[in-house]
Write a structure and sequence with these properties.
Length: about 325
Amino acid sequence: MVIKRLITVLIVVTIVVLAGAAAWVYEQATVAHKPPEAVEIVVPKGASSVKIARLLLQQQVITSDVIFRLIVRMRNVGGHLRSGYYHFSQPASMEQVLSRLQQGDVMRFQVTVPEGLRTDEMLKLLAEKTAPSVSDWQNELDKQLQGETEGRLLPETYQYTKPIQPGKIIKAMIRAQQDIISKLSLEPEVQDRLRIMASIIEKETALDAERPLVSAAIHNRLEKGMRLQMDPTVIYGIWRSTGSFSGNIRKQDLAADTPWNTYTRKGLPPTPIGNPGAASLRAAAQPADVDYLYFVADGSGGHAFASTLAEHQENVNRWIKTERKRTSVR
C-alpha cells in the first residue's frame, strides 16, 4: 500500500515537474529577441535541427540552441525545416523563427532584364547578376527550347530564391512570353511572325504610343510587297554573320546582304532580332489603323510618320536640319 502511494506521489511530482518544464520552455520560446545587427543565414539542404540551432545561436538570432531544439522536438518538425537564405533583423521569438523555417520564408531576390536584348546579351546579363555562368544559363535554355532561341524570352523583372536555379527562371521567361501570345488568340503558325515583327518594333521605338504605329508601317509595307528597310535588321544580320558590330551603320552595311537585311531582301527576317517586351508583342498583333509606310526620327526621341514618300522626304529633311542645329550647338 505504501509503495503504491509512493509511486503515485512520484508520478504526480514527475507530471508537475514536466508540466513546469514545458511551461518554462514555452515561456522562453515566446520571448522576442532581436539580433544585435541584421544577419543573413544560409541553411544548407538536409541540415539537421541541431546544426540549424547552432547556426541561429552563433548569429544571435536565438538565445538558446537547447531550448530551440526542445521546441523542434516538442512540435515534431525536425524533418520539416527548409533550406535557403534567411534574413533576420526584427525582434522575433524562437517560435516565430521556427515558424519561418517551417514555411520556408526565405530571402527573395530579383533580376530585371530590359527589353530588346539579344538572347546572348540576356544570358550574359543574367550571369553577371547571379551566380551561374553564361554556359549554365545557355545549357538550361538549350534544354527547354529546340532549335532557334532568339526572341523566345520575355524581358521582365523576375524573382528568385537562393541557391538560384537557372532552369526555373528560363522556364518562367518562356512561359511569360507564351502567356501573352496565347491571350492574343493567334494561330500557331502566326506566332513566329509575331515574334519577329515585335522584335523589330522593340528596336525601332522605345515609346509605347508609337509601337502600334511602327507595327502598322511594317504590316502595310509587307502587304504592298515593299522591303521593310529597317536598320536594326541590318545590324542584327551583321552581328549574326560576324559576331560583332562596330556600332555605326554605314551605307556599305545597308548593301551587305544577309538573311536578316531588309534592305536587300523582301519580307520578314528568318528569326527575331532580339527579345521583345509585352507592349511590342501586343502592338505586332494589333497595329494601328493607319496607312503609314514610312517613319524617321524626329529629333526629340520619337518619330515622324508618313503615308507617302514625299511626306517622308519632308520629315527626313526636317530631321537633318534638327541634327545640324544640334551639332552646331555642340
